[in-house]
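Deliverable D5.2: sample structural annotation.
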Amino acid sequence: MTPEQPPKLTESELCPPALLAEQQRAFEKDIERLLLTRRDEFVSVPCPACAGTHGTFIFRKYELEFRRCDNCGTLFMSPRPSQTVLADYYKNAESYAFWAEKIFPASEASRRKKIHEPWYAKIREYCARYQVPLGTLVEVGAGFGTFCGVAKDANEFSRLLAVEPTPGLAEYCRSRGLDVIEEPIEALSNIAIDANVIVSFEVIEHIFDPKAFVTTLRRILKPGGLLVLSCPNGEGFDIAMLGAASLAVDAEHINLFNPNSLAHLLKESGFEVLESTTPGRLDAEFVRDAALNGTIDLTNDPFLQRVLVDDWETLGWPFQIFLSENTLSSHMWTVARRPMDA
């Protein structure tokens, strides 16, 4: 029996093209206004995964420099905005307000059905596989609260907690009747949560100090509890093909781990890593779009020209499934556990 394949997904289902263009304009203004004007507050950092001090310059985007760790292969921004600059950025970025007012209402139904409901099913599967009780489920970086809303409707966990430091997003979560902590997770040094499961989707790539982040997650997780992280895979197909032109490379994604480097960070932080997968569904479409708009030229690569352009309708989705099933997608999930004796 072959494993069930994920539902097909297109970028337009997540963000209507006209709205995406307008959001991109707001995003670029935010970068200039909130980040580049404060370059004197940027700091150089070692590799966020292994703390290696040797990183090779790879490319520049939005006038920001990205390096690849010579030891573990992590892509990371250095110099990067300080924690103070980042906090101010996320609090005042107009692009986030645009998401809240325009994109989110236009795409929530599709996101819920195609992304968050399958995500919740995966979390339940992990709990069953690793025999984790359905006690307290914490989502760190809950955003608009769609995932927590799915979990609330399922009514299987005894407690749900949404951690969301951005004021407008925290208010969205409260509007769903969720229990919300409106603080960065690293600020919760004196709060005992005792989570059975912590999930954090597309967050760790934004964090100034990922080691401090995962160390805090370990502290609030019960022994034997699960941590599930999703984030871009810096070694995935669309990043490998497009480099700085990849949508996964932007001013907010300052850490682009790969399966091995994220596993290293988690092990060094006291976790047992259980599994890593790359279930992404958009890599092939992103590279196809780049070929169609002239960002890259596939004429000298007849295989990809055929798969991504000429025979896209028949070969594109099977090729995406191949990427996903062979840890080659630029979207990854890592499942880890706090050991029972720690």
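Annotation notes: The first strand starts at residue 55 and ends at 61. The first helix runs from residue 11 to 14.
The annotation will be released with the project's public dataset once the embargo ends.
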